[in-house]
Amino acid sequence: MALAIGIPIGLLATTHLKSLPFAYTVRSWFLLRALIKKAKENNLQPDAIFAVVSQDHRCYLDDIDYNQHMNNSTYNKILDFSRIHILYSAFARVMMEPHHHIFGHNGGVVTLFRKEIPPLAKYKVQSRIWTWNDKWLFLQHRFLLEDGTVACLAISKIVFKKVSGKTVPPKEVLELCGHNFDDPTIEERRLHNWDIAQHVLSLDKIRDDPYSWSSLPLSLFMPTTWSQQQQQQSSSNTRPSSIQSTSSSVALNSPSWSNLSFDQLSLYARRASNSSISILTTHQSEQDDKRRKRQRDKVHQGKDDDVVMRCHGD
């Protein structure tokens, strides 16, 4: 009886190890313990600047989704361990000497999926420093299957900050950790990789997307400049009065997007939402009035027809 219960529970726990309580924290602790031990043995001397670090993993049942392959979110979770590995291998002095007061923060990840990782398959994650500029340090990752097939390519961008919040350029941090830039091939390789990495930063432009996420009319949500307000006023005669009065009141009190704080944006969003609800309510009321009028007309028409028929009968 004990075996009948214990074996299934044991198999379930074994194949779902990564989802057990505190599993992520315990794995991080063991990884840090090993990396700190290695760094101390090397007297906090860093690995070569473009050195590759590798980690072996297996896709357990709690890593897969309903498509029967490794879930997209698992890739990002695994990359956490790779970033820790890089930081303690290439930046051991900063990570282990607290008086520097410098900390590395993940600023974003881009993943490109090329091949699925099936359940219970072994795979390797390789990571290395890719390139950097005055603010960002880029890391390059790839997920390899046992036959050497690249399953996924990924890029992480790291920013170094002091406790005060001041950004520390990656090159300064690298020099502080003992990296030497006398070799001209280092800068040559950095520039070559930067030609590609700089385009990743252009993704930040999505923050300035002018198109509303709301399904409501843009004129009710988007703050407008003075020139746009004039265009709205000049064309206001062609719109229904209920919509005209509400949308123009929003527009006339709305500065341009570039001058808005988060609180102001929230205020305009609530105002637009309330205005739209008012418009929809007014429109619905008008439709109800028309429907009731048609019903009354039908009733009156029926009474008139009945009177006419009675007259003919007499």
Automatic annotation (TrEMBL):
Biased composition (Basic and acidic residues): 298-314
Name of protein: Thioesterase/thiol ester dehydrase-isomerase
Region (Disordered): 227-253, 278-314
Family named by the database record: Belongs to the lcsJ thioesterase family.
SUPFAM superfamilies: Thioesterase/thiol ester dehydrase-isomerase
Highest rank taxon of the organism: Eukaryota
Pfam families, A to Z: 4HBT_2
Biased composition (Low complexity): 227-249
InterPro entries, per database record: HotDog_dom_sf, THEM6_lcsJ_thioesterase
Organism, scientific name: Mucor ambiguus
